Amino acid sequence: MNVHTPDRRTMHAALELACRAPSVHNTQPWRWRIADHSVHLYADESRLLPATDPTGRELVISCGAALHHARVAFASVGWRTDVHRLPNPGQPLHLASIEFARPGSVPDDVVALASAIASRHTDRRPFLPAPVPDAVLDRLETAAILNDAMLTAVDTEPALRELVVAMSQINELQRDDTGYRSELAVWAGRRLGAVDGVPASALRGVDAASRPVLGRDFSPAGRGDLAVPPIDDGALLAVLSTMVDDRHSWLCAGEALSAVLLVATAAGLASCTLSQVGEVPMIRDVIRTAVLDGAGEPQLLLRLGWPVTTSYPAPLSPRRRLAEVVDRLPLD
Questions:
Q1: Considering the domain 8-118+318-324, what is its CATH architecture?
Q2: Is residue 231 a contact partner of residue 128, using CB atoms and an 8 Å limit?
Q3: Is it true that 8-118+318-324 and 134-305 share their CATH fold?
Q4: What CATH superfamily classification does 134-305 receive?
Q5: 114, 241, 271, 287: which could join 296 in a potential S-S bond, CB 3.0 to 4.6 Å?
Q6: Under DSSP, is residue 221 helix (H, G, I), strand (E, B) or coil?
């Protein structure tokens, strides 16, 4: 047994948790390569969405979320990770390398975050009206900061109005884009047996009251199957941003997204990531001005709130088998 690297069973379990990370349209655009003393994360360009994500921003953000999930998973079983981001300029798809060391102990909060990985999922329905407590919001903001990003709550009526208008404009522009509609129809609304994409069971069904919920328009994918609670949406909206807008920042944005979502899940909150704010440049400019006071680069919008789960449970989305995303598993 190699005392400097997790054994095969530990590696397998940690990477399975890492692959529970959120990704744009559940494309799961990552590949893991295991070396003798390290693990390497690569972007899988075959899963790029050319109409939705032509620059690869959301692909890299998705991989960043998987990277943070992996960091949490390894830490929860006693392995500290030393991450080198974008370690090889000559290989732009090589996003990170992870090396290992044994820590003195495993903090309780790390175990809680690892447990949250198994239950975290996107909930596109209305949330209960009860507000997110300030103490929880503080923890979410800290989680983003610790991963080189910022989380900014949309807490004024003018900013909220600007955001609602901006999201409506995004949906309108994308509805008029034939390539985008076709791509969405391929990746969303999938039925039983699919191991990727957005399942119909995770898309909102018919709401008899037609209550508005801020989010992506999935209508090109057909009707969803998820029951909608009879409530008005009480979600907190928050913008996840970085100081600059480059590949390294996209990777950090993904890590921050994972951190925020896991802290939220551990606190009992539901969440929905609205990645389309990064898909239309002029809308990013509006959000930068209206929410960030002109500073920072908007990467994602998050809806956070208290879920209705007893009568309206939401299923987990499927994931590909580990063998499909890992090049080699080490022998003990």
A1: 3-Layer(aba) Sandwich (3.40)
A2: yes
A3: yes
A4: NADH Oxidase (3.40.109.10)
A5: 241
A6: helix
List the chain domain ranges: 8-118+318-324, 134-305
- From CA 179, how far away is CA 197, in angstroms rounded? 17
Structure tokens at 331: 């022998």
Q: With CA atoms as reference, report the closest residue to 256 among 98, 65, 25, 29.
A: 65
Number of Cβ atoms within 10 Å of the Cβ of 158: 10
DSSP state of 226: B
Q: How far is CA 189 from CA 212, 278, 279, in A?
A: 20, 22, 21
Residues whose CB falls within 8 Å of the CB of residue 135, separated by 6 or more in sequence, listed in order: none
Contacts 24+ apart (CB under 8 A), 150-153: 150/240, 150/241, 150/242, 150/243, 150/296, 151/238, 151/239, 151/240, 151/256, 151/260, 151/302, 152/238, 152/239, 152/241, 152/291, 152/292, 152/296, 153/236, 153/237, 153/238
- Write the burial class of residue 272 (CB in 10 Å: 0-12 exposed, 13-18 middle, 19+ buried): buried
Q: Which helix (H) or strand (E) element contains residue 232? A: none
